[in-house]
Each structure stands twice: as C-alpha cells, then as structure tokens.
Amino acid sequence: MVPQASRLNNVRYDIRGPVLRRARQLEAEGHRILKLNIGNTAPFGLMAPDSVVTELVQNIGEAQGYSDARGIHSARLAVAQYYTTLGVPDVGPDDVYLGNGVSELIVMALQALLDPGDEVLVPSPDYPLWTGAVILCGARAAHYRCDEQTGWQPDLDDVASKITKDTRALVIINPNNPTGAVYSRETLLGLLDLARRHGLLVLADEIYDKILYDGAVHESTAALAPDLVVLTLSGLSKTYRAPGFRTGWLLVSGPRREAAGYLEGLELLANMRMCPNVPSQYAIQAALGGPQSITALLQPGGRLRDQRDHAWQKLNEIPGVDCVKPRGALYVFPRLDPDVYKISDDQQLVIDLLEQQHLLLTHGTGFNLDTPDHLRMVFLAGIDVLDDAIGRLSTFLSTYQQ
Ligand code: PLP
User: Which residues form ligand 1's pocket by a CB distance below 6 Å?
Assistant: First the structure.
C-alpha cells in the first residue's frame, strides 16, 4: 500500500480530473473526441511567432547549464522593462523571478506565504490552480463572487465580507479565465483599496493581459498600486502561443522592504528548484520586445476575434443558453438556464456530453463556481469546428435530463 498524502485530500483540479480520464478511455476505445476543454494553442494551429522560436533555437547551445535560480538576466531585464512601460515604478531585473510556467510560480508564491489556517481571497469562478495551490498549503480559499449580471466583475461588497483576521492575500485574475471579464479601473481600485486597508498581499494573474477584444483596456494592477506589494504573473503560454515552453514570470513591485522575509522565502524556493527550464528563457526578450503578432488575431477578420464572435453568437442561439460576451482571454462561459435545464451535477453533464457527442468541455463547478449551471468552451478552434461543437451541444441539450 502506498497511501496518498492527506495534504491532498481537498485539493481538486477537476479541469484535468475524472472527465479527462473518461475522454482518454474513449480515445483508447478508438473514438475521436473533439476537445475544447483546455487553452492549448498549438493543436488549433495557433503557433508562437517565428522570432520567438528562433531565439530559443539560436541560444540552445548557451542553455545547457543551470541559470541564476531566478532566471537569466536579459530575460528578467526584459520583463522589468515591459512593466516599466506599463507604468509600474521602480522595478528592475532583481524583482523578477522566472518559472516553468505561471503554474509553478503560483505554487511557489503561495508556499512562501501561507501557513495552515491562513486564508486567501480567490475569485469564483477562478482558474482552479489558485484554489488547489492554496489548499495544498493547508490554507483556505475564501471565494469571492464575480457577478454575471455586471459582466462578471468582482462584487466588492462580497470581497469585503469575506475578509477575516486570517486573510493574507487577494488573488485577482484579469483578464479572467473562465469568464473573459476585463476589470474596470474602478473595480481594480476598489479591490486594491480593500487590500490596502487589510494589509493583504496582492497576487495579480495577468497572463491574458494582451488578449483583449472590442477596445477593452487592460489596466496593470501593479501600476495602480505602487504603495502595495503586488506580485504580477504572466508568461509565454497565451499571448505568445507557446504553452509547451513552460515559461512564465513573476514581478514583485511596491514597498519590497516590507516583504523582505517573504521574498527571502520565495528566493529559497526558487533556489530549491535550481532554476527554470533555461532554453525557453531566451525566448522572453524576443517575445516582449518583438512585434506583437497577437494583435492581428484580435481585430475584426482576425482568427481569435472572429471565433469568439461566432462561438458567443451560436451559443446564445441555443434555447435556454445565454452567454456574457468575453472581452478578453480565450473562453466562453455560457449559462444553462436552471428553469430550462434541471442540472444538479454539472460534472456528470459534461461526462454525458462526452459519451453521447464525443465533445469535451469543462463544467463550471470545476472553476469553483457554486452553482452547477455553466460550461466553459475554448474558442481556439476554427469556425467550422466551433459550429460542429455547438451543434453537438445543442443536440445533446435538446433531450438531456438529469
Ligand atoms: N493562470 C491562468 C488564468 C490561466 O488560464 C493559465 C492557463 O490556462 C495559467 C495561469 C497557467 O499558465 P502557464 O501555462 O504559464 O502555467
């Protein structure tokens, strides 16, 4: 018997859990599954810019040794300069930690901070690694409501009501996965005001900061609060379409002296993993400093923009389905009207959809939403594939009962 650590008891990561296992079984039985469940760009032909790949290839010979535990200097400098242009004051390469994706940095940032019994404010719905990583530290995720009626903006009263003496940090995911919300300056200032009043560390996951539609403007959280310690996280996985490179960064801004003990812990954890994958660190400078090819994909006629419009429109045409139009990121998050669809278990719904229609989506409660009435679909696929998928969903829903 090799038992599992009890630390994992309440850690859930449903977006890669039982549903995906069932999909693998079906594939093993020879079925072809249409997978619109993960924001993985390459399978849909959305590739990293050549200049980014070239930089990695050209430097591969230099990349055989360990780097500085925080990452190579030129990449950290490029990250610091990028945030300087966004208005974050007084940051340099020593304030940047590179990681094997934002995922690794989320876990490190929380492990350096939390003790059992601590609490972290996390949005609902969230990108569920945040909740899972908090629980892995023995801490509690206090989920604050994002309101579908206001385009999924965080409900500031709800955030305030969830703050206790044990609250240590506030997670802000903007633009948001899964909702596609882009937060207004007013909302961000409201959140930052709460962090200021309660002495909270601000964790800003901004991995979709350049994936914006319809003129939406992304405000850098750190730039709005130079007086607060803010950790800003982003990387190559989305804007630069290189999730397989596993490369992300974390910028520390604000009054770092107040966080000296915490930063020593972060440094220790960075040292313990030796360093992040080195070859792909060379791609960072080319990505941030080169032509921003993502822009063409986001304008009318651009793939992401057209696919978003199409998915959103077609989903809204299904009876009993309504969907807020995403203003950022790569996902639609439709609601199944509970008066039309009596769903008590949305994970079961997704498994039934998979078995009947060979279509893989993600259930809303997998993102720590507290009602079983949402689904998430990625709109990275071409319009024909999206049409096929939404047609399958519509057929399925027309007779589905739980
Ligand atoms: N944060 C958010 C909001 C995400 O949506 C994702 C991936 O989908 C990640 C972090 C993880 O990114 P990475 O590939 O850099 O680990």
Answer: 39, 101-103, 127, 173, 177, 205, 207, 235, 237, 243, 248
Give the distance (Å) from ligand 1 centre to CA of residue 50.
Answer: 22
- Mean pLDDT computed over 287-305: 95
Nearest protein Cα to ligand 1, atom 8: 39
Cβ-based neighbour number of residue 211 at 10 Å: 24
**Of 96, 146, 287, which is closest to residue 210 (Cα–Cα)?**
287
Q: Which of 113, 122, 164 is nearest to 143 (CA)?
A: 122
* Nearest atom in ligand 1 to 127's CA: 3
Task: Encode 358-372: b = buried (16+ Cβ within 10 Å), e = exposed.
Answer: bbbbbbbbbbbbeeb
Domain 50-289 indexed as CATH 3.40.50.620: no
Instruction: Check residue 12 and give its pLDDT.
Output: 78
| Residue 141 half-sphere exposure toward CB, CA atoms < 13 A | 27
CATH level 3 topology of 6-47+296-399: Aspartate Aminotransferase, domain 1 (3.90.1150)
Tracing tokens 């969830």 back to the chain, one arrives at 162
Give the model confidence (pLDDT) of 314-354 as tens digits: 999 999 999 999 999 999 999 999 999 999 999 999 999 99
Closest to 219 in 3D by CA, of 328, 59, 305:
328
DSSP 374: B
What is the tens place of the pLDDT at every residue in 62-105?
A: 999 999 999 999 999 999 999 999 999 999 999 999 999 999 99
- Distance in Å, CA 308 to ligand 1 centroid: 19
Question: Which is the closest atom of ligand 1 to the Cα of 235?
Answer: 15
Q: Ligand 1: which of 130, 209, 238 to mutate, judged by most atoms within 8 Å of the beta carbon?
A: 238
* pTM of full prediction above 0.90: yes
pLDDT band at 11 (very low <50, low <70, confident <90, very high): confident
Locate CATH 3.40.640.10 in the chain: 50-289
Q: Which helix (H) or strand (E) element contains residue 110?
A: helix 101-111
Ligand 1: distance of its center to the CA of 341 in Å?
31
